[in-house]
Design brief:
With 551 residues, this protein is of the alpha/beta class. The protein contains 22 helices and eleven strands. Bound molecules: 6-O-phosphono-beta-D-fructofuranose.
Amino acid sequence: MDIQKLTSLAHCAKSRSITSLFYENHNQKDRASKFSLSTAHLYLDYSKQNINEAEFEQLIATAQEANLAEEIKKQFNGDRINNTENRSVLHTVLRAPKAIQHEVLGEALANEVAAAEQQMQKIVSDVQSGALTSATGKRFTDVLALGIGGSYYGVKVSLSSLEHYRDLSLAVHVIANVDGGALEEKLKKLNYETTLVVVISKTFTTQETLLNAKAVKQWMLSCALVEEPKNSNIPSIIEKQWFAVSSNIDAAQDFGINVNNILPMWGWVGGRFSLWSTVGLPLALAIGNDNFSKLKQGAYEMDMHFKSADFNNNMPVIMALLGIWNRNALQYPTLAILPYAHSLRALPGYLQQTDMESNGKSVSKSGDKLSWLTAPVVFGQEGTNGQHAFMQLMHQSDDIIPTDFIVALKGRSQYTENHKVLVANCFAQSEALMQGKTLAQVKTELVDSGCSLNEVERLAPHKTMKGNTPSNTVVIDQLTPESMGALLALYEHKIFVQGVIWQVNSFDQWGVELGKQLGNRVLSVMDGAEDETLSASTQGLIALFKASLKS
Ligand code: F6P
């Protein structure tokens, strides 16, 4: 990528106002319609980005130079683009029609996928109909899903976004955190006799998930007054009520899960892109098979758009290129995700993982040190809450924080006035972040409100807003399984495109390994081992912890 070229182009962008772009060459409305598009249940307005048509063309050229079209084909065709793990990246095939699955995966694997899907659908329909019951023959009232990272976020964000589609007789809970407090809080609300447990772990070696699974198993056995078996017999409550999703079937079985209740996962589906696989079981239990299929259908529609649309009319490509413009050309280090929908409150957390775990890297696919920066720091919160918190900094600090606003036109609640206010705030914030308020404007306002000249001089600098903050607004007509599927796929593809242009492997996550290794070493020092290679700081912290056990 020619960062040098992008940086020099951005020179002029840095010193102009975004608002002025609305008057460049054409009238305002032209820009608003030229810099917007709709597809697959979503509408994107990117006219508030700090970019003009010529610069945008340069970005398109950057995508072409990076052979993006070829790379997209490689991904969808199943080439092993995850080169450090020698894996294909084929989550997209899971939401594609059967004919495509057969073409891409081949007969045997496509049949395996179909069988897993059927197994999952049967579990869902049997739980819903009452054909699948607890060990004591009762209908399930709760599902407890245990998983972390990619085995958690996709389910979590979809559960809350699709809460209006939930089967109300079945409450679905998810736990990721290894904090026993989180577990305790959840277990207090659950009836062991009517709770179905799903352990989701691709590797089935993840410390947090396994520890939680062990604790939940002990809780269930002790509530049921059943001894933990010494041999490989599975107590009936575990046999009937426990399910697992994993590519490590042996480990799940060793843990004591009935082999018939283990749903497969595949190496070619990355954790953070795995919602579309059997990982979606808890979600499907919550919203039903039909709605789960609609979620996949929405994602597939976005896939089709991504594969076929020209780059300058391609929503994921456009969002990716604008992200690169903001990150590398304008050199803004962060990205705020502000969903103006309570049901999308988990989206910033989900995107932190998908984006930063995918592209937070600094060497190319071939291992060379990159001379440009990659993924931005992603953060966010549901609107309007952020307005009464960190958005102060977005309006008045010197840092410019590019933002994605996400909003649904139609609300779901009976409080229509609340929804109108919510949407108004979303539109107003993107405007305020772009327009800002100059010192002169503030002074005029203060004078008009009757302030003395002294007061005007004293207060005006405090009330000035920098403006010129670029944003996208992603508009959804209404949050439905289809539109949610399309939204998730939009970001998946955006992240993929950025990875291609930055030349990183977006599909590994070696960065999390050191923490895991050191976590184990710290644990053994807590248990009495010595490890002088740990810093005095960490040893001191461990000593504090050990002392607290005695007090
Ligand atoms: O955070 C690292 C990671 O490997 C993620 O990529 C993955 O989604 C998560 O841990 C959980 O892994 P597993 O599904 O194997 O338990």
